[in-house]
């Protein structure tokens, strides 16, 4: 249910309503609007009618049901877009179009530091790099683990770029959270509900990728798992879905951007690297993402793609990344967004 408070309702009235929601066995999530506050009351769907009694409390304008199965993620609860602060002065979902760049996996100090320096020069705002890699084959490189996290922290120290890195196993959440500015949930874990619940208890932004076979609704339900635990800082990332097509690694669902924008207030990013699987297709999909209204990009960049331990064929060289970024600016401007630098 959504409890819509009256314009100018007191803080006391709001606190009373929150208290009542808890008494009735639900969790209140307050969304502070510009003119009025609303409270999303979520919990067991059975018996939610008892929340109707809140209608008569002081300061309450209306109690309305949330029709979508994803509640806190929906625009019904929060019509205005969420701007998610990563570090002071850097947010995703605001006016600025944010580009995250970096290798698929951290491989060495030189590799991650060199990439960080180069992408920063081109205008990237965050550095990505996997230390725990969810590989299709158990015989493939699995990542440098904690050593990789330490190297990411060194690259952050060197460049000031906040880091995005994936957590694969619930067992590693605490460790990864010690280093990461943004915790990534990969496509293979989109519906790992135990992991999502743990991430929902962190005070850290989560970059949630769409699973290769999850529908938009399932994707939003996954976001809901994180939100319902109290973590509001969720960023969605479309990275291509499985179709019959084999010319590309996955099929980039570009229309997912406007579809998600209509359904949810959460920011939406595009990963053109895993979506296409081929470096020469990355730049056009970056432009398409900006044109479609995405809030940013997650792009794989490697100083020497032919030597990459993973995903070399889809990784841009720093000079190609630079070229893409230069051309991207025009698309970002047309989309009424801004880019740093
Ligand atoms: C990645 O970002 O390196 C990754 C493994 O992506 P995905 O989970 O989208 O396959
Ligand atoms: Mn990759």
Description:
This protein has ten helices and 14 strands. The protein is elongated. The strands form three sheets. The protein has an eight-stranded parallel beta barrel, surrounded by six helices. Helices cover 33% and strands 18% of the residues. The protein binds phosphoenolpyruvate and manganese (II) ion (MN). Residues 104, 130, 134, 186-188, 209, 239, 271, 274 line the site of phosphoenolpyruvate (PEP).
Give the arrangement of secondary structure elements:
Layout: E1 2-5, H1 11-23, E2 27-32, E3 37-42, E4 60-64, E5 84-87, E6 90-92, E7 98-102, H2 109-122, E8 126-128, H3 146-159, E9 163-166, H4 173-179, E10 182-185, H5 193-200, E11 206-209, H6 216-228, E12 234-238, H7 256-263, E13 268-270, H8 272-276, H9 279-292, E14 296-300, H10 318-334
Parallel strand pairs: 7-8, 7-14, 8-9, 9-10, 10-11, 11-12, 12-13, 13-14
Antiparallel strand pairs: 1-3, 1-4, 2-3, 5-6
Phosphoenolpyruvate binds next to loops.
Bound molecules: phosphoenolpyruvate, manganese (II) ion
- Indicate the CATH architecture of the largest domain: Alpha-Beta Barrel
Output the radius of gyration: 21 Å
Supply the CATH class of the largest domain: Alpha Beta
Strand order of the largest sheet: 7-8-9-10-11-12-13-14
Task: State the secondary-structure class.
Answer: alpha/beta
Could you tell me how far the N terminus lies from the C terminus, measured between alpha carbons in angstroms? 43 Å
The ordered H/E elements are EHEEEEEEHEHEHEHEHEHEHHEH
Report low-confidence residues grouped into runs of 5 or more: none
Name the shape in a single word. Answer: elongated
Helix content: 25-40%
Provide the domain count.
Answer: 2
CATH superfamily of the largest domain: Aldolase class I
Task: Quote the beta fraction.
Answer: 15-25%
Total helices: the number is 10
């Amino acid at each position: 249910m959504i409890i819509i408070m009256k314009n100018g309702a007191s803080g006391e009235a709001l606190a009373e309503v929150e208290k009542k929601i808890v008494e009735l066995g639900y969790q209140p999530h307050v969304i502070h609007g510009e003119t009025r506050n609303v409270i999303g009351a979520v919990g067991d769907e059975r018996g939610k009618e008892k929340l109707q009694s809140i209608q008569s409390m002081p300061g309450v304008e209306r109690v309305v049901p949330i029709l979508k199965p994803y509640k806190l993620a929906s625009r019904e609860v929060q019509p205005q877009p969420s701007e998610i602060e990563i570090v002071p002065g850097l947010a995703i979902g605001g006016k600025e179009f944010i580009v995250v760049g970096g290798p698929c996996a951290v491989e060495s100090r030189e590799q991650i530091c060199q990439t960080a320096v180069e992408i920063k020069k081109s205008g990237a705002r965050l550095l990505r790099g996997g230390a725990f890699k969810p590989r299709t084959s158990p015989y493939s490189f699995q990542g440098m683990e904690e050593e990789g996290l330490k190297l990411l922290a060194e690259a952050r120290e060197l460049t000031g770029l906040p880091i995005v890195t994936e957590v694969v196993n619930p067992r590693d959440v605490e460790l990864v959270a010690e280093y990461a500015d943004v915790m990534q949930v990969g496509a293979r874990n989109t519906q790992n509900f135990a992991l999502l619940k743990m991430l929902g208890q962190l005070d850290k932004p989560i970059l949630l990728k769409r699973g290769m076979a999850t529908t938009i609704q399932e994707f939003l339900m996954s976001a809901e798992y994180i939100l319902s635990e109290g973590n509001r800082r969720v960023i969605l990332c479309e990275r291509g879905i499985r179709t019959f097509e084999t010319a590309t690694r996955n099929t980039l669902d570009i229309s997912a951007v406007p579809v998600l924008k209509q359904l949810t207030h959460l920011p939406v990013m595009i990963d053109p690297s895993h979506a296409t699987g081929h470096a020469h297709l990355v730049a056009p999909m970056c432009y398409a993402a900006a044109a479609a209204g995405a809030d940013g990009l997650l792009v794989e960049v490697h100083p020497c793609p032919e030597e990459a331990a993973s995903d070399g064929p889809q990784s841009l060289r720093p000079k190609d990344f630079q070229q893409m970024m230069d051309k991207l600016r025009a698309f970002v401007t047309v989309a009424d967004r801004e880019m740093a630098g």
